[in-house]
Each structure stands twice: as C-alpha cells, then as structure tokens.
Amino acid sequence: MQDVRNGVLSWRGRPLRPRGGERWPARTARSPGLAARLLGREGNGVSIDGPWFYEPATGHMEGQDLTGFTVEATDGTIGQVDRQADDVGMRHLVVDTGVWVFGKSVLIPVGVITGIDTQARQITLACTKEEVKAAPLFRTDSETLDPEYLGSVGAYYRELPRDRTE
Length: 166
Prior knowledge:
Order of helices and strands: EEEHEEEEEEHH
CATH superfamily of the largest domain: PRC-barrel domain
Protein name: PRC-barrel domain-containing protein
Mean pLDDT: 76
Distance between the termini: 42 Å
Number of strands: 9
GO biological process, one term: photosynthesis, light reaction
Shape: globular
CATH architecture of the largest domain: Roll
Structural class: alpha+beta
Low-confidence stretches: 1-9, 18-48
GO cellular component, one term: plasma membrane light-harvesting complex
Organism: Streptomyces avermitilis (strain ATCC 31267 / DSM 46492 / JCM 5070 / NBRC 14893 / NCIMB 12804 / NRRL 8165 / MA-4680)
CATH topology of the largest domain: SH3 type barrels
Strand content: 25-35%
Number of helices: 3
CATH class of the largest domain: Mainly Beta
C-alpha cells in the first residue's frame, strides 16, 4: 500500500524518495501506482515503466490468470507459471523451471514479457534462458516481500539490453 505523509512516500512501511531526495507531490497519494511507476522509470531497462509493470503491447488484461502458461525466452522454453503476483508496483511471475535449472523456480518481473498468447497459453519474454538463469537466485516465497531482493531483481532486469537486433 502506498502512503504519503509529510511528502515522504512509503511502500510496505519503508520510506521511498524520488531521485535527488526531493519530496513527492501531494497528488501522488491520490493516484494509485503513480509513485511506483515513477520509481521504475529508468530509460535503459526492459520496460518503459520498469520491470514490474506490463507493457501495453503484451496483450495483458487486468485480472488475467496466467497460472499454467508456458514461458518462452528468446531461445527456448523456461517452464510454466506456478504463481503470479499482481501487487501494484511489484508484479511478477514465479516460474517452475522443471529440470532446466535443477528443479528450481525463478522470479520474473512482468516488464520482461513481450507477449501473452491466451489461445496457446504461452508467454514470451524479451530475454534469453541464460539471462533468466543469471538473475538473482529465487529461493523462497518470503523473498517476494523482501525489498532488498526485489530491488536486486529489478536492477538486474533493468540493465538488460532492450534492442535485441543485430
């Protein structure tokens, strides 16, 4: 939940500040998701709104259940969506990789998604299997609430190149 008191925005009880340490405008408190979107805008990441927000061109519809969808990287299948989190500001998928990464799950921010095909029940990503494998290790569900872990995942995916043409 977002909260603005005395010009300080907090997310899940932790204070957040925009770049430069200035205060958030009062309208931030009246606009759900605005502050989180502002925090995600980096200009060099996977998504224009940061890795935690669906791109409009993906075909995502609010309330859409992606559990069980197959997840495809640019170079092959990663696994199937086991769980999804649609908390504003921290939207992500937990993907069961099967034997591909020794039976582990990976956390994938939704800003990495390039397409959702509801007919084929398939999600395509803007990254390779190796890039997903190299992301910060996902061990337990409690990490989905850990700001440090989520920050490291967000930073990792923001640094991936957008333009994949050669």
